[in-house]
Amino acid sequence: MHCRSSLDNLVDDIVIRIFQTLSVREILTLRRTSKRYYFLSRFRSVWYAAFCTEVLARHLPPPGPSCSLRALNSADLEHRTLLALSLEKRWSRSTPNVIASSRQRETVDQILLIPGGTQILTVHGNTVIYWLISGQTGATYKLQKVEEWLSPSDDACIVVKDTEGQGIIAIGCRDQPNKHATVFSLASKPALSKLCDYPLIPGTVAGISRHLLFLDTTSEQDGGGLELLDWHAQTEGTALLPCIPDLFGPFLGFVHFSDHILVSWETCISVFPVPEIPAQGRIVVAHTKVFIFSEPISSPVAFTTCIPRGWTGIDAPAYSPSQEMPSLTIVARPKGRLGRIAMSMLIPLSNDDGAKYLSIFPYQLLRLPPFVPDVPGDTDRSIGGQECTQISMGSSGRGLCVFGREVRLCEPSLLYIPPREMQFGPAIYEIEPGGDGVGGDRVDFDEGMGRLVVAKGSGDFDVVQLL
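Above: the chain sequence. Below: its structure as tokens.
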């Protein structure tokens, strides 16, 4: 008479409880041993536990749109868990797979992939089109054209997204200052639900983050800067983060970091407190600190803390974040050296330095080694046909850059804790030539889903899944 294993003798409820304590690798190994274990390993409670312990507790970028965890079934939780672990192991070495393509055949001026990886916005002159990606793993994915929005003027549009918000975007005029701006939600129904409308704004739309709409007013005679509107309150007052044109150079980008707003200019980074926006009139915000770059930079520029934002669903388990002060990596193209990437890092002052130089923003700027594609040992040479046209970074440090027509992935180096260098992988996708050339708005990605959208020269676009 054969002896059955102790696990085989247990009732289903106990076996399921045991599955909830196993690693994903152990679950996948055990489910292959019998039909019973395969069936029990598919219970929702098993993959809920795996998703919480191996993705959320380890602060990996969670795949897919954030929602209530109760709304995710077993298959959803299993897919998101396995995808998160796979991307963690091989982000910069991932294999691209085109899962859907549009047949619009109309020049795409800008393309955005909304956080969650299932919503796409394309800009065609003064028209914005909203798309949805539908389909399940292993099945055919489809692109659904949901809605079009036509600008009230004939001016070309620009769309900016709030990477911290739930599908919040702002649309303004790309090149014409002192025009209109509109804030929309993609999380509400109907699609493109209007939240706030400004018939006239100073400058041009530069970005949106949390409750603030950022406007570039550096074309003003007095130098201007970044003008801030509180779109939540929908008040008329503004706060100015000033620019000193002769010292700072052109505006390049901004980021919320360590309870401050950091603005990147050509020669430096300005640090400002987050201001209270007045109901009327304008206030000018004083600099907290200014950091000078070792060499001038130019657009594109991107920022990352190498810390994923995590799950934002209302019932997400709470896991303690790291007690260490965060660092900020600035990735940009050096001015005049278009074929490479320059990297700098704001790191916390050491205890000795912090005690010596008391500061409300206790950081120092560290220069990191540059990156040049395919030219070993030559960081000063300009590479013909390999101009860096786009850099995009996620909060976790996963990102992409475009050199010429080549898309490359990057991620933080694991050799340093906290990460102080970026690893760049080989080219994974070549953008189809044509149209007006490859600009800085024709590729976007979602770090959790491992998904890219790429506008092609023929006028359509591809949705690319990293595997």
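DSSP finds seven helices and 29 strands in the chain.
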